[in-house]
Amino acid sequence: MDEPTKTSHFGNRCFPLTPDSPMHPTLLPHVKETIEPIEPIAGPITPPSPAGSQNTADSRSQVGGTKLGPSAAVLSGLHVLAAERDAVAHLHHVYATSTEAQESFATAVAQIAQTMRKRGKLVVSGVGKSGKIGQKFVATCNSLQIVAAWLHPTEALHGDLGVIGSNDTLVLLSHSSATTELHHLLPYVSHNPVIAITGHPHAPSNPLFTLHPRTAPSIVLPAPVPVPEKELFGVAAPTTSTTVALAVCDALALSVAEELHADVEEGVRSVFQRCHPGGAIGRTHVEEQAEGRRKATVEAEAMEMG
Q1: Residue 119, phi-psi category: left (phi > 0), alpha (psi -120 to 50), beta (remainder)
Q2: Per-residue pLDDT of the chain (306 residues; tens, 9 = 90+)
Q3: Using an 8 Å Cβ cutoff, are 122 and 112 in contact?
Q4: DSSP string for residues in the chain
Q5: pTM here?
């Protein structure tokens, strides 16, 4: 008898752990192919328990007074991880195969690099979970010496618009492109270039731009998800959509850093070291520098003796 399909439960809905059918097609018409499902990693999910400890396979947890077998909790977690993995794989596929997405990304990198060379900055804005991703993007940019500031769109209309300079570029995050607060902000920044990271892939038809006349460049970086979150989990909580937005932000930040710091000795690495002296990362930098000095001393002494 065949082994029954393992399932994950969210609310009152039941989902297979991994999909048997191909990915949903992307919203971008240029991308015609589907992504082959990624094979699951073989082997145990967790390392074996130490000798003498309780067998985790036989243990039970209790949440809210309801006992759950470990398989239900683990399968639910694996379902989410598989969905996140497939969303990032789909995003990579979009940028690897869509000329439109590639051109938009290259244009965005060039726009941000030009902004930095004009002594401008990035002003990043969004609401809710997209806003949290935007704040992380700001932190990443600043650690790479890409000057960036966070602006809440509601606070912008209550005086914080003053943070936006004439040479600044805005980065707006909204999966739907329908965020009311961003639509309220846009009429006041029509002369600043705007980069939108959104699930709505096309600038000519994107509501963020079609509803507001603009004189400055408008760039859309697509961050689509292959399957709506409500279909995956039974609830539209931002999960895969924020994951792909974060991935686009990381790709953008590191690509801009490579462009800006190409002429710096040791490139992006040395810039990041200078901007991030604290914590475990900073200690690693100090240790690497000390080791480099030690090796240089040894080599110099060897040459003198030779």
Answers
A1: left
A2: 554 444 444 444 444 443 433 344 444 444 444 444 444 434 333 444 444 444 444 444 555 566 655 688 899 999 999 999 999 999 999 999 999 999 999 999 999 999 999 999 999 999 999 999 999 999 999 999 999 999 999 999 999 999 999 999 999 999 999 999 999 999 999 999 999 999 987 777 899 988 888 889 999 999 999 999 999 999 999 999 999 999 999 999 999 999 998 887 777 877 878 776 777 766 666 666 666 666 767 676 677 776
A3: yes
A4: -PPPPPEEEETTEEEESS-SSPPPPPS-TT----PPPPPPPPS-SSPPPPTTSPPGGG--EEETTEEE-HHHHHHHHHHHHHHHHHHHHHHHHHHHH-HHHHHHHHHHHHHHHHHHHTT--EEEEE-HHHHHHHHHHHHHHHHTT--EEE--HHHHTTTGGGG--TT-EEEEE-SSS--HHHHHHGGG-TTS-EEEEESS--TTT-HHHHTS--SS-EEEEE---SS-HHHHHSS--SSHHHHHHHHHHHHHHHHHHHHHTTTSTTHHHHHHHHH--SHHHHHHHHHHHHHHHHHHHHHHHHHHH-
A5: 0.73
